[in-house]
């Protein structure tokens, strides 16, 4: 027999569904919303989203159009799935869609006290200014070249000495060390390190997986307390572990202040100069910003390089062409330098193509801060926006043969050669667009080209054999959805040196 509590809950859901369905229908009669699926009572279109939202939304867009409206619980959401629709929101109406929706995932970064989830305003602008000036801008990028060269050297020697290479793990360690040396003046992850660094690496994986899920409580706030999917509880525990690590890192940093006398690093600047605009950064802002840098800086770039290497290993002809270009420009007696990148157009085309087909962030979230109109449709204030960069990269109106990995589309005199990923060409927006375009895009672009080129030039790559009778295993290219887009099966490979021994010193 059902308990009184369950009967009351069932009655509550039925009444809520009845009232909201009628209220929503009444509102629709007074505004012209974009077309979209009708959905279910109470939950709306939430059951249609599935485990791979970027794919299911792309399929729905083929039926309902490039601008689509979905009711998710008590929340309206519009989805832009073509370059033209992305331009409308991220350029024409950028000011009206400059905020992120507040979701349970924002609790990771101290209730959206960071730059990724934070609300657009003076404090957000200060964080953006400081990171651009000291870490992610053009001058800072030039100053960090020596750090990147040293850390890529460590990566190359680790791959040389490994029997098999867990590609995403090694790439994540390298990226974490590049970021930590720029921010904290020290390497974050050492071999067999059992301190804060090794715990942090595992937590990044948890955070990315949890943050990308569509949490029911975010769309039906009245039942958020039930934590039906368990996401809120897991995020709370993950945040607690992150917070402990952040506190330990900052404490160690303060104790070592004497070692940096006259040479302040980024954390020193945040702690000392964060209030120069009258909107001082508190400890939660600083820790949230550090999490942005470490999670965003390690996960997105390492995923992109892994996808690119997997695509090249799947096509020996393409891999051979990339290697021929590298050998011709660099030779066999030294490793790739960042100054070589401008002479490697095919490598750059490969990196553009991987960002098109496998965007690090497949869905860009925003929220309407005022009532707007797009393409003749009403977008009420508070409506959530998703720009589906994954669907845009596969739009047959924008790209010829979009499912094929074809770097050549970015070479020669064709349309693709003129397209960049700096936010002005909405056919290719892996870093987003408008005022909230990814602050780290310059660093990401250089790191992806530099590390991918180094891996292709310095090593012969092949998949491990799974058995004498079966031969080499097949490349698995399935996706795993989260805040970022990962390979479902991490790339494990065998790498053999192909340059002169002196190149690995």
Notes on the structure:
This protein is of the alpha+beta class and 505 residues long. The protein is built from 17 helices and 13 strands. Strand 11 and strand 12 form a beta hairpin. Residues 1-8 have low confidence and may be disordered. The chain crosses the membrane at residues 6-24.
General form: globular
Question: Helix/strand/pairing class, anyone?
Answer: alpha+beta
Number of strands: 13
Low-confidence stretches: 1-8
Mean pLDDT: 89
Major β-sheet annotation: 4 strands, mixed
Question: In the CATH hierarchy, what is the class?
Answer: Mainly Alpha
CATH superfamily, called what? Answer: Cytochrome P450
Rg (C-alpha, Å): 24 Å
Topology:
Layout: H1 4-28, H2 46-49, H3 53-64, E1 67-72, E2 75-80, H4 83-92, H5 122-136, H6 138-143, H7 145-161, E3 165-166, H8 167-184, H9 196-211, H10 216-219, H11 231-255, H12 266-273, H13 283-313, H14 316-330, H15 345-357, E4 363-367, E5 372-374, E6 377-379, E7 384-388, H16 389-392, H17 441-458, E8 459-462, E9 465-467, E10 471-472, E11 479-481, E12 485-487, E13 492-497
Parallel strand pairs: 2-7
Antiparallel strand pairs: 1-2, 3-13, 4-7, 5-6, 8-13, 9-10, 11-12
Helix pairs in contact: 7-8, 8-13, 9-11, 13-15, 13-17
Protein name: Flavonoid 3',5'-hydroxylase
GO molecular function, one term: oxidoreductase activity, acting on paired donors, with incorporation or reduction of molecular oxygen
Binding site for heme: 438
């Amino acid at each position: 027999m059902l308990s009184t509590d369950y009967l009351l809950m069932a009655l509550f859901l039925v009444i809520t569904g009845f009232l909201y369905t009628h209220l929503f229908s009444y509102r629709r009669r007074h505004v012209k919303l974009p077309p979209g699926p009708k959905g279910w009572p109470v939950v709306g279109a939430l059951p249609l989203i599935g485990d791979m939202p970027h794919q299911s939304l792309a399929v729905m867009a083929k039926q309902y159009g490039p601008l689509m409206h979905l009711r998710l619980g008590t929340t309206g959401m519009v989805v832009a799935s073509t370059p033209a629709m992305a331009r409308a929101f991220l350029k024409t109406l950028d000011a009206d869609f400059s905020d992120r929706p507040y979701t349970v995932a924002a609790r990771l970064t101290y209730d959206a006290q960071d730059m990724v989830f934070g609300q657009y305003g003076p404090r957000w602008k200060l964080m953006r200014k400081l990171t651009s000036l000291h870490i992610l801008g053009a001058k800072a990028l030039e100053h960090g070249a020596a750090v990147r060269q040293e850390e890529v050297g460590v990566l190359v020697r680790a791959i040389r000495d490994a029997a098999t290479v867990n590609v995403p793990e090694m790439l994540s360690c390298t990226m974490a060390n590049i970021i930590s040396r720029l921010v904290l003046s020290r390497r974050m992850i050492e071999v067999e390190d059992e301190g804060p660094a090794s715990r942090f690496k595992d937590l990044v994986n948890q955070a990315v997986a949890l943050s990308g899920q569509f949490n029911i409580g975010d769309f039906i706030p009245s039942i958020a307390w039930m934590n039906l999917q368990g996401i809120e509880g897991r995020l709370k525990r993950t945040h607690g572990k992150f917070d402990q690590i952040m506190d330990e890192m900052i404490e160690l940093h303060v104790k070592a202040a004497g070692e940096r006398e006259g040479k302040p690093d980024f954390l020193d600047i945040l702690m000392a100069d964060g209030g120069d605009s009258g909107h001082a950064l508190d400890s939660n802002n600083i820790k949230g910003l550090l999490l942005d840098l470490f999670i965003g800086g390690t996960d997105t770039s390492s995923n992109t390089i892994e996808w690119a290497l997997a695509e090249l290993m799947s096509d020996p002809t393409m891999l051979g062409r990339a290697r021929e270009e590298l050998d011709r420009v660099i030779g066999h007696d030294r490793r790739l330098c960042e100054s070589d990148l401008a002479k490697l157009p095919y490598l750059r085309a490969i990196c553009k193509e991987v960002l098109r087909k496998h965007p690090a962030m497949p869905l860009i979230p925003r929220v309407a801060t005022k009532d707007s109109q797009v393409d003749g449709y009403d977008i009420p204030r508070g409506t959530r926006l998703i720009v589906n960069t994954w669907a845009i990269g596969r739009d047959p109106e924008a790209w010829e043969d979009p499912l094929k990995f074809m770097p050549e589309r970015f070479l020669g005199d064709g349309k693709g050669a003129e397209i960049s990923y700096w936010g002005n060409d909405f056919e290719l927006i892996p870093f987003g667009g408008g005022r909230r375009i990814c602050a780290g895009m310059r660093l990401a672009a250089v790191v992806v080209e530099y590390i991918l080129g180094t891996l292709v030039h310095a090593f012969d790559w092949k998949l491990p054999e799974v058995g004498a009778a079966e031969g080499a295993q097949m490349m698995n290219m399935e996706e795993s959805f989260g805040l970022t887009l990962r390979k479902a099966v991490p790339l494990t490979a065998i790498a053999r040196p192909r340059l002169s021994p002196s190149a690995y010193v």
